[in-house]
Amino acid sequence: MSKRQPRIEEVSRIAGVSASTVSRFFNNPGVVADETARRIREAIDQVGYVPNLNAGSLASSRSRIIAVLVPDIAQSIFNDTVEAMIEELTAHGNSVMISLTGSDNSLLDRQIDAALSRRVDAIILTGVVTDAATRARLKNHATAVIETWALPDDPIQIAIGFSHFAVGEATARFVRERGYRRPHLVVPQSSRAIERANGFTAAWTARGDEAPTAQPVSSPSHFGQGRLAFRGLADMDPRPDVVVCGSDWIAQGLIVEANAAGIRVPDTLAVMGFGNLRLAGDMRPTITSIDIDGHQIARETIRALQRKAAGEVLPPRLPVDFRIIARESA
Amino acid sequence: MSKRQPRIEEVSRIAGVSASTVSRFFNNPGVVADETARRIREAIDQVGYVPNLNAGSLASSRSRIIAVLVPDIAQSIFNDTVEAMIEELTAHGNSVMISLTGSDNSLLDRQIDAALSRRVDAIILTGVVTDAATRARLKNHATAVIETWALPDDPIQIAIGFSHFAVGEATARFVRERGYRRPHLVVPQSSRAIERANGFTAAWTARGDEAPTAQPVSSPSHFGQGRLAFRGLADMDPRPDVVVCGSDWIAQGLIVEANAAGIRVPDTLAVMGFGNLRLAGDMRPTITSIDIDGHQIARETIRALQRKAAGEVLPPRLPVDFRIIARESA
DNA sequence: CTGAAAGCGCTTACAG
DNA sequence: CTGAAAGCGCTTACAG
Questions:
Q1: What Cα–Cα distance (Å) separates residue A46 from each residue in A29, B64, B117, B226?
Q2: For chain A, which residues score pLDDT lower than 70?
Q3: Would you state the pLDDT for residue A311?
Q4: How far is the CA of A21 from the C1' of D13 (A)?
Q5: What is the model's pLDDT at position A2?
Q6: Which residues on neighbouring strands pair with residue A245, listed in sequence order?
Q7: Rounded distance between C-alpha atoms, residue B8 and residue B30, angstroms
Q8: Which residues contact B240 (CB under 8 A, 6 or more apart)?
Q9: Which domains does chain B have, with CATH numbers?
Q10: Which of B143, B168, B89, B112 lies closest to B308, judged by CA?
């Protein structure tokens, strides 16, 4: 049960080389002779050697651990992006340390300390850090800090994402082009969703139209809020012709409620989502939504990390695409 | 930017004690004198010391890293459990290393190696490892291996979960008590869902009734399969009176399809889900489902780890509760 | 309650 | 292409 694991020294002895060479075999294979490599490989297989990366991290002062901090994971709009991030990072030889900061970010500081304790090569944040002290602390830290899913004016170090305000503007243009005239916004109370609502309102009123009506809901959003959103419509006169929802879950819940009340989507009421989750394409009617490319965010993050490690100076804001996916619901 | 981080030696010098004492302050605080602790605390604050846990892991041969291996995370039935697991583990001072094994488990061996490289204190698996070579390799490994969400006859080391067969049996009894007579099973092709279907069939036929009809769907399951499941019902004669779905997502999709076709749930067709996701309670009609207590699995896992660390010999199978949540849909 | 010393298992200039 | 030696930043018996 508790047999001690083999060390690099055992492998080197069996292969008839020094520990340095075995180390090079793992970390800089190009430099070791073919025949030597063969013998090392054999020795590794023979003893079942698995390198101790904690020792490696200490010796090289590079941990190859990346911390990914997310508000939650049970049902998060970030999950696609986080999955892509984990895939890409591990495929590139990193370990991913995941931490939950709570949907109110109350655990953020604690989780940052935990990440720093492991001497992670980078901290990847989903969502925006608003606390000034935390921002200041990370600003000049030796550890790379990457904010994703947003493009703040003044990132802590580097932000990889998109402007939620711009998403809102684009949504407003889309809604107008589709011929809708009385949009209603269902806005989860997160800074990002609020930014999108602001962008929508700015673009909508810029043409002289009256500001859209809006209804706040709690964040993170979920299916059940569709019911709330639908109830909110009952008293409105005139009734909106399109509801722009802060997430696909809300949109889905709203459609189910509308159907139960005998209201046809999109004929009587159009509905838009956000996030382009798989269910958006599967729902009946299919849900018009806005796609965020989680894999692109993940790839850009990897690339930024590599460029930074190579000593390059990076632009603080790396924009990533979003696109509106027109489907049946709006 | 790249200022070197302070080491324990700096703290000890400022506090006027040895490095050993500072180490004890962190790892065995009860043993250091109050006044000494006060001076150490001051020194820590002064220099902003954050211990290097990679060095600590190496020195103590205890990493306080736990690997959590999951098939996927974008939309997984395990997500509630995984979230609970991460919360509990980090609250107890562990770091959580997360890895994706793929829904076909094709990356499992690679991710196990990655975990062993970090000398994790435990590997927590969600789902069952079927590959014999992998099982054999982990069986006698010094690293703790915990299988969760299932209760196999012969766990690798320790299993914490419930019997899917028993869930199926309980579901059959529930369905019969509710007065349904022609159950139809929608079965994702995962070993767990198949076990539940087997349990259902066994309990159902034990009373002399004809075996339930069944339809396989791919795994992992998702909302869109509700459409598939509904189409599968069209040709059936007689039509089933209750559809037992492998997940709440399938149940939800099936209900949406049924409604679109003018079929009332549960009046004309009853539907059951599995997993008791939040949406089950929010759906219209609310979905009768089976609840798995992710927090209980997480807590039992922590407890097992602690008991094992204390040298206790644990029973190989630790059962965890499930319960049927009766709602409107069946 | 505290300190000096050895050691955890690697990596990396340096020299050849 | 390879090896010897120093060092990464901690922890932990051991002794007092």
A1: 19, 29, 17, 50
A2: 1-3
A3: 81
A4: 33
A5: 45
A6: A186
A7: 19
A8: B182, B183, B184, B212, B213, B233, B269
A9: 8-51 (no CATH), 65-162+294-321 (3.40.50.2300), 164-292 (3.40.50.2300)
A10: B143
What torsion do the CA atoms of A291, A297, A299, A304 make, to the nearest 10 degrees?
Answer: 160
Query: Taking the C1' atom of D9, which residue's CA lies nearest?
Result: B55
Q: Would you place residue B192 in the very low, low, confident or very high pLDDT band (cuts 50, 70, 90)?
A: very high
Determine if strand D comes within 7 Å of the CB of A24: yes
Report how far residue B161's alpha carbon sits from residue B297's, in angstroms, rounded to the nearest whole number: 7
| The token pair that represents B307 in the structure block | 């008991």
Amino acid at the residue B221: S
- Is strand D less than 7 A from the beta carbon of A11? no
A98, A117, A226 member nearest B96 (Cβ): A98
Q: B54-74, pLDDT tens digit by residue? A: 999 999 999 999 999 999 998
Tokens at A270, concatenated: 């159009």
Specify burial of residue A36 (Cβ count, 10 A radius: 0-12, 13-18, 19+): middle
Note the pLDDT of residue B24: 97
CB contact under 8 A, B99 and A119: no
Q: With beta carbons under 8 A apart, name residues in chain A contacting B97.
A: 65, 95-98
- Which spans in chain B are helix H? 8-15, 19-27, 34-47, 53-60, 79-91, 108-117, 132-139, 164-177, 191-205, 225-234, 248-260, 278-282, 294-309
* pLDDT confidence tier of residue B235, bands split at 50, 70 and 90: confident
- Is the peptide bond between B51 and the residue preceding it cis, with omega within 30 degrees of 0? no
How far is the first Cα of chain A from the last one, in angstroms, to the nearest whole number? 61
Work out the average pLDDT over B71-78.
90
Angstroms from B206 CA to nearest CA on chain A: 38
Tell me, letter by letter, the H, E, C secondary structure of chain A.
CCCCCCCHHHHHHHHCCCHHHHHHHHHCHHHCCHHHHHHHHHHHHHHCCCCCHHHHHHHHCCCCEEEEEECCCCCCCCHHHHHHHHHHHHHCCCEEEEEECCCCCCCHHHHHHHHHHCCCCEEEEECCCCCHHHHHHHHCCCCEEEEECCCCCCCCCEEEECCHHHHHHHHHHHHHHCCCCCEEEEEECCHHHHHHHHHHHHHHHCCCCCCCEEEEECCCCCCCHHHHHHHHHHCCCCCCCEEEECCHHHHHHHHHHHHHCCCCCCCCCEEECCECCHHHHHCCCCCEEEEECHHHHHHHHHHHHHHHHCCCCCCCEEECCEEEECCCCC
Query: For chain B, first and last CA: distance in Å?
Result: 61
CB atoms under 10 Å from CB of B137, counted, come to 17
Q: In sequence order, which residues have a C-beta less than 8 Å from that of residue A276 and are 6 or more positions away? A: A248, A289, A290, A291, A292, A325
